[in-house]
């Protein structure tokens, strides 16, 4: 069975997010507005006000409460949605950890923005990076269509009986949050059909008034270790699920994204650029131009950030001659960018090759076509044995 | 691909103009990607918006450095030293101004369009929100899209009396723009 063709509308990334959430029929929403996420919260309120979304909006005084409300509602059995960014994300840090530890399948959009330390109302992935070890599934998308499709897929993953984990769907502030693109909005009946398998699985544990139910992460010694091990194992299982759900989505809706990673022209590539988010689209343009010049370059777009797509990356990169990683964030106290640092950890498995780290696109600065072109040229030279710089802060050059 | 850059100030409708322009091109069957860039939401702060139009899906998500078209909503921004930097040869320039253009502002320009969009907006809408008027002027000066496409998409964003006033403003922009071919 195939889904019907959906209506095409011109929407910004933020409005796309609200439309996507509505299609998944959340029962409780608690989101505090913050630039560049505000339209998500506004539009969801507007949907509830005009009756097109039957959800309870819990007005909160900040993000910490927003996540507490979402976790509690989720544990009571509701489907929930929230969205945040930057200061909002770090303001809910303790509740992020609780939500993951409670195994509450909250789906949250995070509009990537720089974090406190330097007040910057601008794009950057530092917020997502700073919550890496919160135990959430973290996925990064490239464009507005991928936002809508990934949010739908995220409910299948989060609420899967074998997973039961919260998911953060990340998209670049400004470059995507305010980007107007034509997006195909799936039909409600098709989204209902795609999410229907969730109803056939065993009911997940929930709090029932009057009944004694244990939940949460109080655990001493082995109790703690067992709960952590189960959480850790669920994240491991999530990797294959991401691929499976993406494949099923593709068969039904006609659009798929590669699951954990998307590979673009990597099959015969000698060198590879690893990038994520909106910048991955620009990298594809550069790859086509460089291939016309005879450079065999491909892209690995890292979609899944947590759990780390180790096996898929090894498969994609093994035997290549050099890799360049473009990071839109920093790893304080470690010289490479975060995604490059993590790639270095699997370097023994992909084989000995130069891995070049590039820092670009901080604080709304643009990862331009010339910047990417230069990365490709340098990685290509490194593959041919030329000396290279380990880490390059492109805007500082 | 055609690349268009819009320069305005917070409150003049530059952000909405970029979205309306995107919708109008989509109505003509084009692929479009359009986004504004600003820091805090502040009235009066400079805002830049970037719009790409193509016959195939657009993957680039960068700002625009080599525009085929410039729309300047606030004539005060003419003093930006980099306003015309990187213009592609044959580019179009649409300006909101009550005055005529004294000379060709950049050698790569081929089409100029000047309209008193603020004056028209104040008359038609009652406020200095000249964005829809400039979209009409843009359609007339460049011929890159039809006035009908601009008018058709305004109802996606506005309704009631304010829609009617903006339709009038866009139509007047289309008819009253002074077009210069260099």
**What would you say the CATH architecture of chain B is?**
3-Layer(aba) Sandwich
Main beta sheet of chain A: strand number and arrangement? 7 strands, mixed
Q: What fraction of residues of chain B sit in β-strands?
A: 15-25%
- How much of the polypeptide of chain A forms β-strand, as a percent range? 15-25%
Query: What summary fits the major beta sheet of chain B?
Result: 7 strands, mixed
Number of helices of chain A: 15
The H-level CATH homologous superfamily of chain B, spelled out, is Pyruvate-ferredoxin oxidoreductase, PFOR, domain III
Going across the major beta sheet of chain B, what is the strand order? 2-3-1-4-5-6-7
Give the name of the CATH superfamily of the largest domain in chain A.
Thiamin diphosphate (ThDP)-binding fold, Pyr/PP domains
Give the tally of structural domains of chain A.
Answer: 2
Mean of all residue-level pLDDT scores of chain A: 96
Global morphology of chain B:
globular
In short:
Chain A is an alpha/beta fold and 397 residues long. Chain A contains 15 helices and 15 strands.
Question: Could you explain the architecture of this structure?
Answer:
The complex is a heterodimer of chains A (397) and B (182). Chain A is of the alpha/beta class and 397 residues long. Chain A is 41% helix and 17% strand. Chain A has helices at residues 13-23, 38-49, 63-75, 86-91, 93-101, 126-130, 144-158, 188-195, 197-200, 222-253, 279-292, 310-317, 338-345, 347-350, 369-383; strands spanning 7-12, 28-29, 56-57, 80-84, 107-112, 137-140, 167-172, 180-185, 261-264, 271-275, 297-302, 304-306, 322-327, 355-359, 391-393. In chain A, the strands form 3 sheets. Chain A has a 7-stranded mixed beta sheet, with helices on both faces. In chain A, strand 2 (28-29), helix 2 (38-49) and strand 3 form a beta-alpha-beta unit. In chain A, helix 3 (63-75) packs parallel to helix 5 (93-101), helix 7 (144-158) crosses helix 10 (222-253) and helix 11 (279-292) crosses helix 15. Chain A is globular. Chain B has a single domain (2-181), classed as Pyruvate-ferredoxin oxidoreductase, PFOR, domain III (Pyruvate-ferredoxin Oxidoreductase, domain 3). In chain B, strands 2-3-1-4-5-6-7 form a 7-stranded mixed beta sheet, with helices on one face. Chain B contains 5 helices and 7 strands, in the order βαβββββααααβ. The interface between A and B is medium-sized, with 28 and 24 residues.
